[in-house]
Amino acid sequence: MQTHNSCGLCSITLKDIQVVSGQDTLLDNINLQFHCGELTALIGKNGAGKTTLLKAILGERPYKGEISYQDHHGAKIIQPKIGYVPQQMDFDRSTPVSVSDFMAAARGKSPVWWKIGKSEKKQIQEMLEDMNCAYLADRRLGALSGGELQRVLLALATNPVPDLLILDEPVSGVDMAGLDLFYHRVTELRDKYHMAILLVSHDLSLIRRYADKVVLLDKTVIAQGDADEVYATEAFRSVFGYLEKEEGEA
C-alpha cells in the first residue's frame, strides 16, 4: 500500500440529488458536502435511502442533481478514486479459492486458476499486513469469519489509496470486538491517508466514538452535525424513538 495520499481531493458536493423508482421517490433534495480527512456516518431507519445514496455516488443508480469532486483549488476532479466495501459479498463458500487467489483476481492481475507470481504475492502480503491479517493469505476464502472477510475487502478497497472510501454496513453480523477493531482501523486509514470516508452503520455508540460527522436520512437530510448534536435532535427521536445518551450517562 502507498505510504501517503496526495490528498488531491478536498471535498465532495451533492446538490439537489433525487432518486426515483417508478412512482416512488427514494431520495429527494439531498444537499451535502463531505471533506477529505473526515469520517461521515449515514444513519436512519431501514428504507431511509442510505444504500441508495451510496449507489448514486458510485454511479450504480440513476439520479437527478449533481455530484461533484473538487481539489484544494476549487477545480473539479473528473475521475476520483473511490474504494468500496459492500454490506455483504455473495459467493460459494465451498469454492477452493484462497484469499491470495481472490485478491489477485479482484485486482485484475490474473484469473483465480493461474499461479500468482512472486511480485504479486508480495504485494498482496503487504496489503494484508496493513490490515493486521497477513495470516489469512493462504486461508480458504469461504472459511473466513465475517470480520476477517471484511478486513480482506477493506484491504482491496484501499489499494490504491482512494480519495473517497465508501463502507456500506461493512461489519454486519460481526461481534463487538471485531466491530471495534474494524472502526479503529478505518480511523487509522483516515488519519494516515487523509481520505474522505462515507460509512453506513446502525452502531450508534461506535459512530459517536469514531465519526467526525453524522447525517440522519429519511429520504432527505433531516439532521446533520457531530454525533452529540444529531442524537439530541427531535428528528433523531422521531426516527429511533429515543434520544441516544452520551457514554457514561445514566
Automatic annotation (TrEMBL):
Q: From the Swiss-Prot or TrEMBL record, what is one GO molecular function term?
A: ATP hydrolysis activity
User: Which organism is this protein's natural source?
Assistant: Anaerotignum lactatifermentans DSM 14214
* Keyword line: ATP-binding, Nucleotide-binding, Transport
Q: What is this protein called?
A: Zinc transport system ATP-binding protein
Q: Per its UniProt record, what PANTHER family does this chain match?
A: ATP-BINDING COMPONENT OF ABC TRANSPORTER-RELATED, METAL TRANSPORT SYSTEM ATP-BINDING PROTEIN TM_0124-RELATED
| Database matches in SUPFAM superfamilies | P-loop containing nucleoside triphosphate hydrolases
**Domain ABC transporter: start-end pairs:** 12-243
Q: Which PROSITE patterns match?
A: ABC_TRANSPORTER_1, ABC_TRANSPORTER_2
Concerning InterPro entries, the annotation shows: AAA+_ATPase (IPR003593), ABC_transporter-like_ATP-bd (IPR003439), ABC_transporter-like_CS (IPR017871), Metal_Ion_Import_ABC (IPR050153), P-loop_NTPase (IPR027417)
Domain of life of the organism encoding this protein: Bacteria
Keyword Repressor found: no
Pfam families the record matches: ABC_tran
